[in-house]
Amino acid sequence: MMAFNRLVTTLFCAFVLLPIVWLLYAAFLPPEAVLSASLVPTGFSLGNFADLAGTGVGRALLVSLVASGLTVFGQLVFGLLAAYAIRTGLPLLGLILLALALPSELLLIPLYRELQGFGLLDTLAALVVPFWGSPLVVFLLLQALRRLPWELVEAARLDGAGEATVVIRVLAPLLRPELLAAGVLAFAAHWNLVLYPRVVASALPTVQVFLSDLLRSKPLEWGLLGAAALVTTLPILILYVVFEKRIIRTFEASFQ
Amino acid sequence: MTRSPERAWWLALPTLLMLGTFVLFPLVSVVRYATWDWSGLSAPVPVGAGNFRRLFADAELGRSLRATLLFALLMLPAFLWLSRTIAVAIDGLRAERFIKALLFLPGLVTVGGSAIAWYSLYNPDYGLVRELTGLALPWSTEPWAGLLYIVLFTLWQSTGYGVLVVSAALKGIPSGVKEAARIDGASDAQVQRLIVTPLLRPTLLFLVVIGTVFAIQSYTAVFLLTKGAPFGSTRVVGYYLYETAFERLQLGYGAALTVLVLAATLLIAALQARILLARSRA
Q1: What is the distance, to the nearest Å, from the Cα of residue A253 to the centroid of all Cα atoms in its chain?
Q2: Which residue segments constitute the domains of chain A, with CATH numbers given?
Q3: What is the CATH number of domain B58-281?
Q4: Which of A95, A143, A208 sits opposite B111 (nearest CB)?
Q5: What is the C-alpha end-to-end distance of chain B, expressed in Å?
Q6: Which of A79, A114, A165, A195 has the fewest CB atoms within 10 Å, i.e. is most exposed?
């Protein structure tokens, strides 16, 4: 039984790894090697990355970095405040959990109409502001607050600290690891939106919009596609590798 | 001098304002838009319940609901089985952390990048598998294969998430319980079946809900990989909704579809909220 489980695990790991390894490999193949389909490594080349220069990837990266960064910043600030309010007794958890299961892209049509009404279509605000109330971030931070010894907050209050001081001076530093983990997860979630940015801000292509357009316009150029995929994954990959332990632990702890 | 904890409630105002403006308001107003004939660019024309009547006569919607159901029936059991099997297999191994980190990775790799990797590997006309083996994978010609393709991609993306959740639950089972059963003469298989399985049940139920949400969200994978082809077999309802609204520019009818999908999602969400509430109070 255990041997079978291990076999399944090994096979699945290979299945997960294959596309990732292939992406890394294709990105560094010389462009002509991919076209001739000779997969014996004929050399290492940065040609694909050079070819990327004229495709607008730089602008897409900039748009996504700014949009996802601003989104996560707002989510963490608002989320910590809301999680604290719930921790002190505000009965809001039900609503938060309900919102957690609603993918924003399901509300694409009414959101489109609403942003149209505000005159925000094709602006950075359309990519950022609607995400500032994040149920996921509130949930993760609330679970973290529940693990925290509450005497710390009470002691700070006895010392005369106002609620804002408690959150900013006491809780935020204590929750730094969880804020980081929630921030990385939220960043990845926003970074990975495809249909939403396409509809509300097509004039400001994010990396996902850029990638799906590239896949459509140059389906045969594996090397170029691989390089584009790699470059646009890099920011998240770096965040993940640096904070992997923290992310997994925060994630697991909130489900225990 | 004790302060009443209620003082902090106003701190939730920014989040409430955002959720109100960008979740609750759209949730309510979409019902009104559903009574419009509206292309998104022109001024809307009220048509009463026409869009809702059209829902019942829409054969494409029927096919798309069937594709969604089929997708969920293929994906959910595999998702649960893989999550549990892998979590049990790696529990306590030295490589546990590494394997979990690896399996969680596809959920974070940009979805566009993942689509590119899958496309260039498995494309039936010019994918790597075709180049190497000459095997033309039937994704784009056989309806069942197209659906399977999206299922595999979704499993590839989300199983790491399931493994993490089950693994966390396994760690929550006190080792003393298992040891006591072993001392009483239970075999490994019996410990799994009689102790671990019942204790995992709430977690697996939670995964059913999460998996359903993943299934509802599969429209992104469909958009990137198959666009509903072949023969509409992968046109899951979320994708049909997007296509109707933003490619055929029928936002009014799309809004009626949204109401339908939302009703289903809210039902699932209410279930998920109940399960999570029960767990977070426990």
Answers
A1: 20
A2: 1-45 (no CATH), 57-253 (1.10.3720.10)
A3: 1.10.3720.10
A4: A208
A5: 32
A6: A165
